[in-house]
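Hi everyone, sorry if this is the wrong subforum. Our group has a chain we'd like a structural model of before ordering constructs, and none of us has done structure prediction before. Sequence below.
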Amino acid sequence: MKTTFIAFFMLIGLFASAQTTKENEILKLSDQIFKWEVAGKIDSLDKAFDNKFVVVSSSGEQQTKAQYIARLKSGNFVHNSIDVQENSATVSDNTATVVGKGVFGVTVGGKKLSIRLSYIEVFSRAGADKPWSVLAMHASALPEK
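Answer:
Right subforum, don't worry. Here is the predicted structure as tokens:
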């Protein structure tokens, strides 16, 4: 009987870790995208963003992939630091989301700001054997603590 319980819990543990593997993959990709933003690796971001990518900033401004990439290239908007304080991922077939909170250090028009944001990222892929791409991002300002 004891062996049956051990085997049962081991099987549950394997199943649970298999479910989190995809979520961890998405969290790693999200983290990598933030690192590229801080490092100014615009070419890497361009490849990671889907052609239909759209971003909605904390001010409500919407930008297409081309507009966002152009904004980053202009130097008028720079990510100085991104400190993710919490995040979680959900994967459903070929769609995934990351929801999180963090402190984003940015320079906008020469002015340095530190903004607490809540954000969501939407990832998609054409099939299970295809790479993930970022389809959409949205950020909302959080009140200061």
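For your construct planning: The radius of gyration is 18 Å. The beta strands are 49-56, 62-64, 77-92, 95-108, 111-124, 133-141.
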